[in-house]
Amino acid sequence: MNIVEASFSDVRVVVHDGVYEPADDTFLLCQYLDISPGEKMLEIGCGCGLVSIVAARNGATVVATDKSLAAVQNIRENARKNNLHDKIDIRQGSLFEPIQRDERFSVIVCNPPYLPGTREDPAYDSAWSGGPDGREVIDAFLSQCTNFLEKDGRVLIVQSSLSNPEKTYLMLETLFHNSTIKAEKRFFYERLLLFEAHQPRQLTTERF
Ligand SMILES: C[S@@+](CC[C@H](N)C(=O)[O-])C[C@H]1O[C@@H](n2cnc3c(N)ncnc32)[C@H](O)[C@@H]1O
């Protein structure tokens, strides 16, 4: 069997078959996480767990979710290997389904499937295909995230220039008092963008 490994700083993980292998988007999120000890973080779509484990290594308490059973089993193994299993609460389910209505986080992060691609495409993969315009998970995540943030909480979300970042920016402007592109990585065919938004406005999100 081919064993795939990845690492960031002193965190090392293995990547199981069928689970997203950490890539530039994952490392961008790890690099600009800026999480402090004692923070409560939620990661939606944790994959093999590198981002959540880096956050826990920095002293955060983490809830990590993924809709894929393979991903959930993978992060469990990696959390144990890094001796951080008591800092990460791992749950399976889509988007915010595994989160209780009254749970609140100081930071919510997501590296969603953001590339245009539908189930009819031969190369479709739910780890990175986000529907015809790449926005299925992005839009659903943004529409719900403020319901689970503390008053001064923040959101970090990665996406590609190929999936309408202008719409993300407009949604964040509507939902938050402060939003910005925190980091960017350029390739010849696309840009990866890391959005950060602070201080939810507590609006209802029906307009999206
Ligand atoms: C691009 S991968 C990112 C994985 C990991 N966070 C990383 O940065 O390496 C997207 C992850 O989101 C998960 N995912 C896709 N749709 C989801 C949904 N509706 N709810 C929760 N997780 C989802 C996939 O299973 C996959 O693990």
Describe the protein in words:
The chain is of the alpha/beta class. It has one domain (21-200): Vaccinia Virus protein VP39 (Rossmann fold). It has five helices and nine strands; from the N terminus they run ββαβαβαββαβαββ. The strands form two sheets. Strands 5-4-3-6-7-9-8 form a seven-stranded mixed β-sheet, with helices on both faces. It has a two-stranded antiparallel ribbon with strand order 1-2. A hairpin with a 2-residue loop joins β1 and β2. α1 (24-31) packs parallel to α2 (50-57) and α4 runs parallel beside α5 (165-175). It is globular, with a radius of gyration of 16 Å. The mean pLDDT is 94. S-adenosylmethionine binds at residues 20, 22, 25-26, 29, 44-47, 50-51, 65-68, 71, 94-95, 111-113, 126-128, 137. S-adenosylmethionine (SAM) is lined by residues 20, 22, 25-26, 29, 44-47, 50-51, 65-68, 71, 94-95, 111-113, 126-128, 137.
How many strands in all?
Answer: 9
Helix content: 10-25%
Distance between the termini: 45 Å
Strand content of the residues, in percent?
25-35%
Structural class category: alpha/beta
CATH class: Alpha Beta
Q: Topology as H/E string?
A: EEHEHEHEEHEHEE
Shape: globular
Number of helices: 5
Compute the gyration radius: what is it? 16 Å
CATH fold node name: Rossmann fold
Number of domains: 1
The multimeric state of the shown protein is single chain
Bound molecules: S-adenosylmethionine
Mean pLDDT: 94
The largest sheet is: 7 strands, mixed
